[in-house]
Give the backbone structure.
Amino acid sequence: MSLIVQKYGGTSVGTVERIEAVAKKVAASHREGNQLVVAVSAMSGETNRLIGLANEISSDTNLREMDVLVSTGEQVTIALLCMALQKLGIDALSFTGSQVRILTDNAHGKARIKEIDSHRLQGALQAGKVVVVAGFQGVDEEGNITTLGRGGSDTTAVAVAAALQADECQIYTDVDGVYTTDPRLVSDARRLDKITFEEMLEMASQGSKILQIRSVEFAGKYSVPLRVLSSFEEGPGTLISLEEDDQMEKPLVSGIAFNRDEAKLTIRGIPDQPGVAYKVLGAISEANIEIDVIVQNVAKDNSASITFTVNKTDLSQAEELLGEIANDLGALEVDSDKRIAKVSIVGVGMRSHAGVAAKMFEALSNEGINIQLITTSEIKITVVIEERYLELAVRALHSVFELSEPGTEMT
Amino acid sequence: MSLIVQKYGGTSVGTVERIEAVAKKVAASHREGNQLVVAVSAMSGETNRLIGLANEISSDTNLREMDVLVSTGEQVTIALLCMALQKLGIDALSFTGSQVRILTDNAHGKARIKEIDSHRLQGALQAGKVVVVAGFQGVDEEGNITTLGRGGSDTTAVAVAAALQADECQIYTDVDGVYTTDPRLVSDARRLDKITFEEMLEMASQGSKILQIRSVEFAGKYSVPLRVLSSFEEGPGTLISLEEDDQMEKPLVSGIAFNRDEAKLTIRGIPDQPGVAYKVLGAISEANIEIDVIVQNVAKDNSASITFTVNKTDLSQAEELLGEIANDLGALEVDSDKRIAKVSIVGVGMRSHAGVAAKMFEALSNEGINIQLITTSEIKITVVIEERYLELAVRALHSVFELSEPGTEMT
């Protein structure tokens, strides 16, 4: 008998009919002898409907009351799912975040979980019940309702799985697993059976939106095996787990992530002085603009240049700030480029293998694609290229690392 | 400075626009220097929408989960009303039934309030906040969400007023007060400035649907002055309070209530034996059929006959049961009549005055209306008549007791 936490998102519970389909999946797993906790989101569209009501009053509403409002979305789903389970003869019991006692800080709208009281959940499980928990919500120490921010139901599921020391946390989504790259771009993209937490994090941070980054971090931290599956199709999905669990040799490259949401900014000819990077990037960060890739060079005349990327929506503000900084520092010029894309190859196999970067650069060179920036981490190599070459680059890399052919890239 | 509890029903908060209108009323009273607690219902239509979702799954849903579901309706309203108040510069704070801690028994769907923890509410009031409480809902000792049954928001308001020892509990509705009788039937029906709890109870039990009976009982028990006002018009409404508070002499008759929802059943020629009434009515009650007026006679031959009324929806079931009972008891016959109506005159003045009943019967006789049954209580006289004479009877009684002319009926 395994203890499994399942999570179904808004699309999976978008109608009563779909809730009944979810109930069937849950019931099947329960009848196989598993203990089950199910975390659910609001029915798709419901959160937006509630926010719409608030916006009729004001666009700048009180965050505490906003949480009181939107948390009703998941509360509706837990009740309906329990009813659907009971109709199938399954004894089910619902819990709001407050009833579980998912204790969070008081940062309304983006609260962080501090502690989960597993007492009531354990009691219900031991009584043979299927437990249905409202995702996305918690309660602070004063009893105020909090929400974890959009997509927070994944985090709820993982946190509950960690608190209960569940055997697996299954995240049901509208895709049937994690792919080597976006199948809409590369037709022979392949579903991965397994991937490590680190790889998943690198994939997710590069625009693979299947799972919330926080939930993957959380799962990694507490070693909760995470499985991504489809709500609508049968299939094993992708298991995200610790590398150590994996008996097989790891492939060099597990997947290719990409992102076209960023723009590039460069400041050139900064007279050399200590702390230049801090002076440039500190001011940008203070304006709450998130900085991604950063590269710094020193020219022959000892003047420095710094290039970094920001989200396209922050570009004009960042440009303005950078202009002021250039003045202060006596830098020569500032320029920016929106027509860029980031492409990353990700794989824990890189750790023990040289030559992966060279292979990547060669592949891009063969296609005539110029690399503007390069950054590397232990398990990821990222390049910034011209946006119009993005699809060509992804397809070339997918092919050169043989990602469509399972197993062949093992060493 | 007064402490006032206000209650706004579903129609009063039916749209965001109306919620903003309620916020203006609340803000005005707050700016006059009153401390305010506001209890609200779900936006009109919302509870039915939620029940509709449940009914898509099953018509026989789990009551605990039904409470989890429908309690979201008021939770949405409290958040939106707080936002609307905050937009007007009023510091407002919302509480669900569980957050107040409105402790109830665990009779889901029809829970009764056991205790209200006034601690958090007092704290918020003392901090100068307007407190907004979700009506209709509470929490049992195990932390399960409960609801008080439909219309229970009135009860919430009264119970909170009692717990806080409020100066007045104001129930805002779609009518501007309690009338001497239904103004749709009698055009010169008059709004009453004052009425006693007892009179209001008798009026309510006879089909005057302005207030929930339970909330009036509750208000009477804890001596909470209750005022019925219109959400949509200005005006003093009707104050419902203890008779003792009233300096004026009471009128003989305060109002006329009526009801056409009942049917009459008669069982005749029951051989005389002890416990006949119990044998007949006990079986009906056991089938959960509510019995209203009961009259028993003994004929010259010592055989008994019993007549009683039930709701029309229960008639066919009651007829069937009564047929079996008649067989068992060896009674002569059973008959029933749907085309009846009940009319009552209500007034605490009756206690100290004879002749009221005679005046009533004379008025009906003058109109050629035959009285089929009569029952009386200390402050109410009820007759059952043919349904087609109902309007005639109500108008005649309204006139003979001079209800359209305030003050004239004082002794």
Summary: Chain A touches chain B through 37 residues (CB under 8 Å). The mean pLDDT of chain A is 90. Residues 63-87 of chain A form the longest helix (25 residues). Chain A has twelve helices and 20 strands.
